[in-house]
Amino acid sequence: GKGIAVFTSGGDSQGMNAAVRAVVRMSIYLGCKVYFIKEGYQGMVDGGANIVEAVWSSVSSIIHLGGTTIGSARCKDFRERAGRLKAAKNLIGRGITNLVVIGGDGSLTGANLFRQEWGSLLDELLKNGEITAEQRNKYKILNIAGLVGSIDNDFCGTDMTIGTDSALHRIIEATDAIISTAYSHQRTFIMEVMGRHCGYLSVVSALTTEADFVFCPESPPPENWETRLCKKLDQERMAGQRLNIIIVAEGAIDRHGEPITAGQVKKVIEDNLQQDTRITVLGHVQRGGSPSAFDRILGCRMGAEAVMALMEADENTEPCVISLDGNQAIRLPLMDCVKRTQAVAKAMADKQWEDAVELRGKS
Ligand code: ATP
């Protein structure tokens, strides 16, 4: 059978383990040899004990764990051709010509580049005498399937990225806990949540926790947001509410593209309303902890579909990303999705927020 390897790269997210598990078990079920590459691209470049064959039981008891048990990393070496040359040699040595990459847009971009260079990397290895002519011919095609692991839900082409739902649950749980203490002391709480370019976590958590105000990256508030905010909070208190909750995404900005921070919002409230105001920064709590049922199933479905895509791939097949479209797992051209994701980031940087939202929405 084919040689398949799976690795996780970039920031970790809940549900990655479910995806790794599905890749391993589907591969074995279909008669393939399947490998873990530990520590992302770094493990691929370094080789050795970082690339190990997986068996059925290697992925027992991991579906309920957050993070990624096979490790993840950011890797400078893989950004250089010399690093990718080493990685190619390590893969060929084990007969691996199929990769399942689980990561964000950076990791998928790296995989695409690797695939494009594959032929020339093998030529160089052959010239250096590091592989044989037989190996050069046998392993001439590298097939790639990508899965998007990210808690931010910031990738174009998929309705949900692996990890988003769990992060959202964590935020809601923490906010519910804060609400009970805020109620007792009639306090105002500002919750800082993740989401550098994407307001999904902040907006959905605001809607589901009955927050009074939300600041997110792609919909900057009007110029006079300070007045509006204070008016809204005041109104709620006058109407008998004992507390206020404000959600601030870490990437929140104003109409000039300048950051709006939790500290700034606190100062505005204290200066104008004299409310007892506290900040809670959720930080990495959002990325950790056990994955939700949704993320476990999402990881399983995406992982299984990635293996199917690799099984069906031939030399003309472009790298694909497995996406969730409604309730369907579908395959989309990897680079189209990455390019659109990058176009959204650019539109945001250019302060074209409406364009960014429209671009992200298109499938
Ligand atoms: P996150 O959503 O957490 O940022 P990501 O996959 O986008 O995840 P990056 O740090 O951008 O995270 O990329 C992870 C790794 O992928 C990098 O450390 C690098 O090894 C590799 N990589 C990223 N971009 C490229 C590229 N253009 N060429 C080669 N390798 C790349």
TrEMBL record:
Belongs to the phosphofructokinase type A (PFKA) family. ATP-dependent PFK group I subfamily. Eukaryotic two domain clade 'E' sub-subfamily. Belongs to the phosphofructokinase type A (PFKA) family. ATP-dependent PFK group I subfamily. Eukaryotic two domain clade "E" sub-subfamily. Residues 4-309 form the Phosphofructokinase domain. Residues 1-363 are annotated as: N-terminal catalytic PFK domain 1. This is ATP-dependent 6-phosphofructokinase. Substrate binds at S150, I151, D152, R187, M194, G195, R196, E250, R278, H284, V285, Q286, R287. It is found in: Cytoplasm. Mg(2+) binds at D105. ATP binds at G11, R74, C75, G104, D105, G106, S107. Homotetramer. The active site is at D152. The chain holds residues 17 to 379 of 788 of the full protein. It comes from the Eukaryota. Catalyzes the phosphorylation of D-fructose 6-phosphate to fructose 1,6-bisphosphate by ATP, the first committing step of glycolysis.
